[in-house]
Amino acid sequence: MPSASPVEVNENFRHWLQKEFTDKCRNNPRYSLRSFARLLDTDPSSVSQILAGKRRVSTKAIQKICGRLSLSPEISTRLLEGAPAPNVVQTASLVLLSADAFAVIADWYHYAILELTHTVGFKSDPRWIAAKLGITPSEAGIAIDRLERLELLKRYRGQLKKSHGILTNFREGVTAPALREFQRQVLQKALHSIDYVAPEEKDITSMTMAVNVDLIPEARKRARAFRRELCDFLCQGPRTKVYNLGVQLYPVSKATNQKELDS
After folding, report:
1. Which of 20, 47, 81 lies at the terminal end of a domain, its last residue?
2. Residue 1 lies in a domain
3. How many domains does the chain have?
4. pLDDT digits 0-9 by tens, 42-69
5. Residues 6+ apart with CB under 8 A from 4
6. Are 100 and 16 in contact (CB under 8 A)?
7. Local confidence band at 128 (pLDDT 50, 70, 90 cut-offs)
8. What is the pTM assigned to this prediction?
9. What pLDDT score was predicted for residue 10?
């Protein structure tokens, strides 16, 4: 495999550093760019320019940052050599994200930003987006950069636009760590809405039932079809707000085994 060019090394390191920062913000909502700069022993303005792609990072600076973050020699070497970029695959009316691409944009707000571009009065300003979604301007700016790099967002006359239709990361029988984290975030947003979203703006209901487990595969297919049908219905006319639709079907009891049936 040919070695990455200095430009590729720089870009790949920047994307990795962005993820380090947003991961820390997710784990601690009060974490700031200033805190991250202090950790890296670098002034905040320089860190901001590096994250935004406005400042090149020297090999010496990459080594210093790796040391400040106590990275293993293996990871440090990979960052100095560069890493392959994730990708997306177009399949009919859906866009299938590769596992690597999904891992990069697993945080819930990436998909919210894509859908926000369809709303009336949308502004491409990261501060406006951050205020609408309840995230920080830094998180919004980094997310936009990632989405543009993956060509999921494009600029038309200075305005951000979603460049593909429905995105999916579904693969039969596969539940990657990034997907599990994304689903946890979706459920956390649902829990938050129980207390902080007006009843007329949401629908949170559930049903407990005894089922024939042999029908679960068909039930999952019907759930996928229902999600897409409801999406088509709700996307008619002017769109003014971004919603999340979550469908959960899971067991609350253990299966009865043959020994229990025979007793």
Report:
1. 81
2. no
3. 2
4. 998 999 888 888 888 888 888 888 888 8
5. 12, 81, 82, 83
6. no
7. very high
8. 0.66
9. 82
